[in-house]
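So, does this match?
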Amino acid sequence: MDLAFELGPDATTVAEISARVDISPRTFFNYYPTKEDAFVGLHEGLPSDDELDVLRSGTSDDLIGDILTLMLGVFTPSDETLLEQRKALMAKHPQLVQRQWARMIGVEQRIAEVVAERMRAAGTFTNVPDAKTPHAHWS
């Protein structure tokens, strides 16, 4: 975050980020596919496969509550200072907001697939389409 504020997100390189936090660029890319994803704090693996498995195998009648619990875990910051830095960086560089929205759509898609599986597995909603099917419609 410091480099992004100092140099701007466009001028900051993954090599510089990696050097600053003493990791290799390869390790950086294990966590974030792009530097912009690191700046906004979201990556393709959110929620984790383990978190999705918990939602998928849930047996409570409160599916909405289970989804909210999962989403709170994904989106509730563990570091308020970092959250404030991210907000300030996005306010200064609005192009990062687009990347944040793209990541959030990815999170939504990962959760939607599991919700559809769980609903079909419950037997009550056998007509729930696969979330990956384009233009899927409920029948």
